[in-house]
Each structure stands twice: as C-alpha cells, then as structure tokens.
Amino acid sequence: MINPSAPDYDNTPVSSKRPSFFYYPKDFLAAPYVTIITPFYNTGPIFHETAKSVLQQSFQQWEWLIINDGSNDPEAIQVLEHYRHCDPRIRVIDHDVNKGLSAARNTGFRLARTSYVVQLDSDDLLEPTAIEKWLWFLESHPEYGFVKGYSVGFGAQEYLWEKGFHHGSEFLNENLVDVTTLIRKTVHEQVGGYDESIRQGLEDWEFWLHCANSGFWGATIPEFLNWYRRRPAHDSRWNNWNGEERQRAFHEMLKNRYSKLWKGGFPQIQKKWHKPWEQVSDKIVFENRLEKKKPRLLLIVPWLTMGGADKFNLDLLEQMTQRGWEVTIVTTVEGDHSWAHEFSRFTPDIFILHRFLRLPDYPRFLRYLIQSRNPDVVLVSNSELGYLLLPYLHAYCPEPAYIDFCHMEEENWKNGGYPRLSVGYQELLDLNIVASNHLKHWMIKRGADASIIEVCYINVDPERWKPDQEVWSRVRKQLGIAEETTVILYSGRLCPQKQPRVFAQVMKRLSDLKYNFIAIVAGDGEDRLWLENYLRRHSLDRHVRLLGSVSPDRMRELMAASDIFFLPSKWEGIALSIYEAMACGLAVVGADVGGQRELVIEGCGILLPPGDEESEVKQYTQALSQLLKDSTRRLAMGQQARLRICQQFRLEMMGDRMEELFKKAIDLHSTKPRSSVSKAVGLACANLAVEYVRIYNVTDWLWLEREKGKKTADPPVPYIPLRMRFYVYLVRLFYPLYRWGKKRGWFWLDTFKNIIKQKLNVS
C-alpha cells in the first residue's frame, strides 16, 4: 500500500521491501470464482513481475488465461513457456497470428469459466488484495457493471492517479483509466465485447463508452490497487494515443458512434443505499480457503488513524509479525485512515470495509474472512460493531479464540465505553485484556469475571524514544529557543478530555510569575480556536507555540528537545504519550486518573488528583513552578522516568506478554469453551447490530447538521484586540469633528490620525 503523502515508486507490489503473507490455496483444483485475462505479445522478462503480483493475490481461487497474441520474440516465448506448466490454474491460449489487444481480450472473455473477469496487461501489477476487494465490491453493489481502484503510475513516469469511473461523463472528453479492471462477464457479452478493428490504441476507451451507451457503468474503490507501467511515449506503439490529429479523429468517431451520450444520455447509476431493516444475507458467494504455516491473528479495529489506541495497534502488529504471526486487519468505521500505509509496512492483509462494502455485508465478509484465513485468535479493540457481531461470529465461526483489548473506561460515553461492552459480551470472549489494573477492577465492579481478565501494559520502545543531544540542539535552533530556556511539551487532541483550558490558564499564571519557559503545543482539535484566542488575549504568544498536528517522527524530536511533559487530562487509561515522554527522559506532570499511577510512581513524575477547574489550575501551577525553579530535581526525575521504562515497560515486553495471552486464550477456548450461539440467534443479532449502526450513523449526521445550523445562525464573535476597540471608540467619538475640519481644509488632521494609528498599531 503506497503512502500518498510520500510515495515510494520503487516499493512496488513485488518489491522485496513489502511484507509477506502466505497466500496459498488449500486446493489448486478448486473451482475458480474469477478469471484473469492477460494479452501477451513479446513482453519479455518483465512479465515475471506481473505474474508474481498475480500469484501473491489474497484471493486465490482464480484462473489465469494468458493470451499469447502471436509472439515471435524467442526470449518472450521462453518466458511464456515457464507459465504453461507451473500452475494448474494458468492456461496459455495461443493465437496463430497477432490479432491485437481487442481480439486477445475477447478470446479471454469467451474462454472464461467464471462470472467475473479481471483485465490485466502483461507489464502491469496488482496490489495483493486488489482482486478480493473488487470481487466483494461487485457482490455488495449489484448496480455496477465493473470496478477498479486508484492507479499508481510507475516506470518512465511516476504519479498517483485518483480519477476513475466516479467521474462519469468526463469520460466523454478523455479516457480516465487504464485497463486494469474487474468486469462482470455478462456486461462484456451484452455489449458485444471489444471492437477488434481498433488496433492502434484507445480500444478500452471505446469499450467503456460502449458500456455506457448500453446503460452500464462502473465505480472506483478509493484505494491504490494497481500499478500502471508507463513508457517514455505511448504513441510509439499506439498511434491513436498521440494527443494530436489521430486522437482527435478517434474522439470524433466516438462522438458519432455514441452520440446519445453527448446529448445527456450518460448513465447515472444510483448507489444502492442501506435501507431500514435491510436483512443481512446468510449466503457467502465466494470461497477462498488458504493454507496456513504460521499462527494468525484477525484484528478488528474502528480505523487506522493517529491516536494512542491506534499506535498500540500498530505496535502490536509489529511485535506479532516479528514473532512469526500473520495478521489480518479489518476496520469497521468510516473516517480517517491516514495511517493505513503505516500498518501496511507489516501486513498486506488490510481491509477498510466502508471503501468496498455496504454495511449489511460487513457481517458475512467477516465470516468469509475467518473461514478464508483461519485465524487462531480474533481480537476486537475499540470496535463497537466488533462487539455487536460476536454472537454472529461465534455462531458461524466457532473455531478461533475470541478476545478483546480495552484501554480505558469512559463514564460519559455509552455508560462506560468499550469496557462496558467488554463486560456485557464477556460470555462470548475467551479472554479480556486491559491496559491497567485500574481498568480490571472497574470491570469487576461492573460484574465481570475476574478470572479471565488479564493486564498488559502498552509500553514503548526506549530505543526509538530516547534523549538525543543532537536532536535537542537542532530542534531548539529550528524553533528559536535558547538553551537555558525550559521547554514544556503539551501534546494531544485539543478537546475537553485533554483540558486545553486548564493548560492555558496554567501557562498564564507561570507567565505572570516571570519564569523563563516556552510551552510547545503539538496537537489539533475542536478547542484550538478557543486556545488561540485565549493566548492572544493574554499576550502569551511569546511563551506558547502552537504547532498543530505533527507526525510521530516529529513528536519524537519535540520530546527530545523538551524538559517537562504536561498532560492535565480529565480521564485516561494510561496515556501513551506519558510512556513516550518518560522514555525520552522528561519529567512528567499529569493527572492521577485511570491507571496512570501504575506507571508514574514517586520520583519519576508528579500526578495530581482531579478536581474543579480552579483547583486544578492552582495545583498544576505549583507543581510546574517547583520544576521550573529546581532543574536538579527535574533532571533527576527525568532520569528515573527513563530508567523505569527501560527496566519494566519496554515494547518487546508487551509483545511477549500479548503472545503469552494469545496462547492462554487458545488454550481456554479448547479446555473451557464459552457459551455457544445458534446460527438463527447469531443472524438475528447481526441484523440488530447493522440496524443499530445505521440508526446511530443517521442520528450522528443529524446532530452534526444541527450543530452546523447553530453555527450558521449564530456565528461566534471574533476576538478584537483592546487597542483596536479603543481606536474604534476614538473614531466614533471624533468623526463628526474630523469631517467638519476636513471641509475647512484642516489637512493636518490626517497626519494626526496616522500618528494615532501607528501608536496603537492598527491598520
């Protein structure tokens, strides 16, 4: 999976830098569900890369028809000979003479034994999960005739291409996609296939418009799923693709052939929306049974974004793959998945469900995935839908051990948040894993069975997060901070949980006390505007720097350049940022909430009890004042903090502990199986779960619309500096006199006005 913000065009789907997964069919002779067709004409050794990208597909029940279109190059023929005998799923079909791409593809469609056909040229590449996602998209969206994803251009030209079938009638102006697509075979049959008279390129453009003219159209999965190899100049082989007269003539031919499309007749396919009480299908259309050589984990999470729980998921993924586990990841919530590329560094088996499935198909896809991958453990972490589907998964897939991981309770969200769900569904979980003893006791008080709740601290890598004098000097120089200035770091989402208002008031009091400090704020959120206005209103700009959201690498640098970490949270489990700060040797000042006392003990930080806002501001001001005045104590506290991390909270200790608990869960699943669920009850629960999520999404949307309407009706009053307000007051008071004097030629009034504006620094 390519990183859109920093693409590495050398890291192709067949690169040795990519993580591996043992995608290997249980039965090579099992009936295929999809046909791949590839025209081949003198391609040469580069075809091995295309073949590798096919052979390592996550969906393995395919047949591959390679159409040898009259190749006459000895080296190319030798390359092709290898694939005639290497795999029973591969068939090489020979044309006696070269007939062109259109004829080769039509041959493939005629001989295809399945209802779905992937078009793949002989020098292009597929991402490992491409075919599986395309298949399930068309199964979930019967209104579409074909589908593809975004494309990566590589070779002579390098770029990311996000245009596609979702641009609809823009295809009337140009061909917006390469040919790598999954098509329903019936669509090809009903339009009569490719026009075999077109042999100079752009035959696929004609085919797409032919489909549109017949009422068929496609969709785009918003994910980079194929790599399109670019030549220095495509018109060297395809004369129609020269951007000049021949291409214009081809365009005119299309306009004449499919004129109704230019007269408003382009198909407008309406996406099938989730209806109230739409039933979850009990049928799984595809099988994809894979062999297994290593233990496997299925991780069900809400999203792949930046946050403490998400960073733990990423750390867990890295730790388990290092220990030989293969990991599949499924996300269940629409939203920000900006860290997906980070997770793809350790596994290719990642499925962001909303990108290719309708909500009613989530349950059966999860069931299909468990049957396909045969995981030893299914782990639910912060996924509400994951909990709600446990009865369904238990009923249809009783083989794996089911466990969960909870970070913290949230009393003000759904009566306790995910730990409340964990307690409620404990009968269906072989093991509960929590991030602190505090949370374990909270769950026991709520009625959970203590014997199957285990604690695993999330920990941190002290080799990544560590003091670094070179970074300390470089970052301070970048930010213009003197060596003798004490730096306080406040990082996290700017939201009520992290109490930016308490932070701001504490900074004001420290400023009033004339301490030499700079506070760095690394984070963003709904309270940022309030914080900016507060800092401006109290002239705290010289003491507080707002950096916004920063990358994990930049956060490490900021911690290395800081002295104190300050996090006055209302609630936490144990904040990951505190683990990181302690590993970097910072003195920690934070809230004595959740399980934080289990990490921050006396001598390596200061934790203060929660209270009302005024008392918290007073306590935090006193604690930070002590550290600002006493650098010796501050340094000693940071050293003890790092020592505690290195001795008891190293990341590999978390990996060892989690693997130990996985094995315990597998053993418990075998020796003390949990309650069984009938398929009828499981399916009923799945229907309720899907309807609950649908209603929740609708009400959430209505709430956001309501809030948007309130903001429109009553916009916030912008902050106006005191000097500007005073200037406006003077203008209103003396404007009649000013006009009277100007009429009498008193031009010195303008000079006087400008002097006042300069003194007040207003424009």
UniProtKB/TrEMBL annotation:
Keyword Repeat: no
EC number: 2.4.-.-
Domain Glycosyltransferase 2-like, residue spans: 35-147
Pfam families: Glyco_transf_4, Glycos_transf_1, Glycos_transf_2
CDD domains: Glyco_tranf_GTA_type, GT4_PimA-like
UniProt keyword terms in alphabetical order: Glycosyltransferase, Transferase
Database matches in Gene3D superfamilies: Glycogen Phosphorylase B (3.40.50.2000), Spore Coat Polysaccharide Biosynthesis Protein SpsA, Chain A (3.90.550.10)
Domain Glycosyl transferase family: 475-643
An MF annotation (GO) of this entry: glycosyltransferase activity
Domain (Glycosyltransferase subfamily 4-like N-terminal) ranges: 306-464
Protein name according to UniProt: Putative glycosyltransferase EpsE
The organism of origin for this protein: Neomoorella thermoacetica
